């Protein structure tokens, strides 16, 4: 049995646990089981346990279900209201499925039926401590991996974290990156981030929008031309390929490139050499290709508008830029950053958005994505001058958007004191009148409704819902465990 010593590498000091057992003789037996591995404090009632919890911090609780002044489940309920991590192991001599289910639903780490051997007790406590440590590691990892800024891009949602990680991984490679996404999602910002993160950052970055250049001039824009190559070519001119030598060439809206030019681009990518329009001499160059399109590239291949061989040559590292409507609270992060920038440009005094405006922003689908949001914020700043952006300042079509109850609540509860663009709490304008005290619901119920709506919106995907809500998935699971108890208590109060 000596082989079951508890190892807690996170702390060289023995873990301090609270043992709550009404039988003093049984409590002494259990303490003897644990003495070599734990520092143990004893309590024989709920009152004793409450007093000791107020005086000390325990890393684990071992609690009997039946106590002289109540139930061990009451200790678990109270602890879970304030502390979601501390493991609680329950014990009972009257084991039943119902009690075990209730214990696990309330967040117990494990459930022991008396009598049990020392080895079983130590293994159970060891697993409970390991579970706690693992939860802490996961939470710390999630926090460390969450960034709200990256090389000019703003966003903390899970899809954007994935974009950041791909950029970091791909930046050091010469592999071609193919960026897809709706218009206005920030594909060019992604390309700029790739260049800035790469070893080519000190070399030129040249961007070319294939949709903005007439087809008959596009070849010359990419490869350049010699003097007299065509009417009006009065002098030789370097193209984007030559200007980007050693750096990065970004071809935006590459789906607009004509098929005959696609074949020349394919050869350039394969060989690294090109010939200017009207010239006879090949020029060798070293550069990194980054391409982007707002269309489905495979659909373009199937329709015959894009060469399949070029697609596979370019589509080495794909990056999908998420639409703004799929980025949760990123809309507000971006809006605050833009409000600060544009207010400085226009010498305005704006410091933030009212909760009602934030709720409207969250309700709107943003078909034009970040570009549309930028236009809205610029419109507000140019045409108004105040400290807080209010609903009446919103331009069409946002002036007709009605925020859902969930989003209104989220905006008001998340920023009871609105947050300015600098991230500081500020005095808010008066909230809209008309809400009586009878319309106020318990906080846990409103929170439950918000979380369930998010899970439903994400088709039951809890981690995705957690990303949009900007909380840890483990937080959702813990709260779901608490709701059953709170619903039962509400029914008792209303009975």
Automatic annotation (TrEMBL):
Positions of modified residues (4-aspartylphosphate): 64
Response regulatory domain boundaries: 16-129
CDD domains: AAA
Cross-referenced InterPro entries: AAA+_ATPase, AAA_lid_NorR, CheY-like_superfamily, Homeodomain-like_sf, HTH_Fis, P-loop_NTPase, Sig_transdc_resp-reg_receiver, Sigma_54_int
The entry's keywords: ATP-binding, DNA-binding, Nucleotide-binding, Phosphoprotein, Transcription, Transcription regulation
Residues covered by region (Disordered): 414-438
Limits of the Sigma-54 factor interaction domain: 153-382
Membrane-crossing residue ranges in chain numbering: none
Pfam families: AAA_lid_14, HTH_8, Response_reg, Sigma54_activat
SMART domains to which the protein is assigned, alphabetical: AAA, REC
This protein's name: Sigma-54-dependent Fis family transcriptional regulator
Source species of the chain: Marinobacterium rhizophilum
